[in-house]
Here is the input.
Amino acid sequence: MIELPATRNPTTSAAPTGSAAPTASAAFTASEASAGTATSALTWSGGRLRRHGVPHRILSGGLHYFRVHPELWRDRIRRLADLGLNTIDTYVAWNFHQPREDEAPRFDGWRDVERFIRLVGEEGLDVVVRPGPYICAEWSNGGLPSWLTARDVALRSSDPAFTAAVGRWFDELIPRLAALQAGAGGPIVAVQVENEFGSYGDDQAYLRWNREALTSRGIGELLFTADGPTELMLDGGTLPGTLAAVTLGSKPAAARRLQAARRPDEPFVVAEFWNGWFDHWGEQHHVRGVDSAVRTLEGIIADGGSVSVYMAHGGTNFGLWAGANEHEGRLQPTVTSYDSDAPVAEDGSLTPKFHAMRAALGARGPLRVPERLPVLPPARVPLVRRAGLLPGLLALPAPATVEPRPASFERLGLDAGMVLHTAHPRIPEGEHRLTLTDVRDRAMVFCDGAFLGVAGPGLPELSVRGSGAVVRLEVLAESLGRVNYGPGLGRHKGLLGPVLVDRRIVQGWESRPIALQEWTTTDLATATSAGSVSATGSDAATIAGDSAVVGEFAGGAPVGAGFSEAIVRVETPADTFLALPGSGRGLVWVNGFLLGRYWDIGPQVTLYCPAPLLREGDNVVTVLELERPGDVLELRDRAELGPPEEYVEEFG
Here is the structure.
């Protein structure tokens, strides 16, 4: 157990609201560079870290409150303590707290980050907070709200339009964190300045603004930056007077030498040790061998090094919060599971990696937690068809716009989900080329109710037959996840470019948002009772076989696509893993809670359903299938995350 220091009053200087970034003259001078304030819990000198003057090593693990059901927070915290850690670090996801600009940020329920931090303290651990505002984390938009990235703003920069918005967010967030600092009797001992900025940009004025935004709002504990261990990244992301930590998956000795050459007085701190990796749809399941992970961990903590295991427990990208990457212009959407091959698995199970790391960290004594929480017995439950795709999606009223061109997600104020675009062009007799010039990320196209195919960046063209009459052209645009890393951060979603019939632009569009992530239990019930399941039925037989291939993602004709339900009877709620054999691609709700996305291209096969989402008696599982519906829901007793592939991230 770690003793918390005596209570003191945190800094209470006035916080600037929406101020622009400082000029270069505001940088810390050499004389101001320090190893933390006199009252900080953590300080350093001579290359060594100290906690209240006593030699100390941070043994931390990543655990994100927004990826774990709140009723399981304490259980997961205890598992990390049993791993041998003395600290937990967490990001704060701005868009999770404030999805709409016209509504104040929320800090209740699942968003009660203060409660999470207090729980960590109650379990005897320190806390490192990484408030961003950008967090990456394979989280939608890197944690930035889409209402902000919708604007013509230079993201993560000293652009006053960006810093003003961040300043208002920090006005809400940072005083809450300041009150939980070690100096105020709380568990927070360190706070990160931005996040891996050196792999994004080199606006030093912005980094200084970010640091000042923290200190002026009451942060008095240790501040640090974190960047990959390369000259390029450290040049862009570090600040004089602020501890420079690194992030890595391998080669800790090389990183230590680089840091010692650049910052000889600072301790070696690895703010993220990637002992596993995340997955994209359509790829294999990334794992990291136990021996490989432990060897690197031992190399980090040798000679007083500090570490944060990323992730120690990954959790789940519930809802539509999973992010995406881009590679050579191709979107790589992240899967629902964020298991990350962590030592504590997605369902809390203790893995072989857990026990090997625990030994390496020198943890002793009995475990306080069970190796695994109870699970429901395997079962098969029939899926009952309820409503067709378009009738179900259109059952809920939504404020549509009518404009010459299709409205983007951002123009409609929609963060995630779908938009149904409808136009009425006249199409001459015969076969014509229908081109969707810029779809982000996927679009199902219908003409007079008949399904034409799927369009996207890899296949923008479909064939349409006209008779000389006006037709009802419907385009259902879907986001597969907002980019969370790199120059693609903040890209807009939806039907962004013109739709052409041959060379002629189709104009006059009604755009209707479908905010699936915001649907309530009542909304879901309305959708599932909204009409015939044959609304998009056998018309699909006219589709060309290759028209549903979009880039790397295979899809099929939506024969019977729409809403289905299964009733799962439970005696005592426990964890379970849901699978949909025979189904193609879609979303799953459990008792009105959006569990996440499934997709038969893998690698993920099962969706983790934690026990707190279930209740004694009947539980309603709702499935929105977008391609081909199966006829059964399976409850399995363990996760199936796909064929494994060894992956170790390396720099240089």
Remarks:
- Residues 1-34, 534-557 have pLDDT under 50 and may be disordered.
- The longest helix spans residues 160-178.
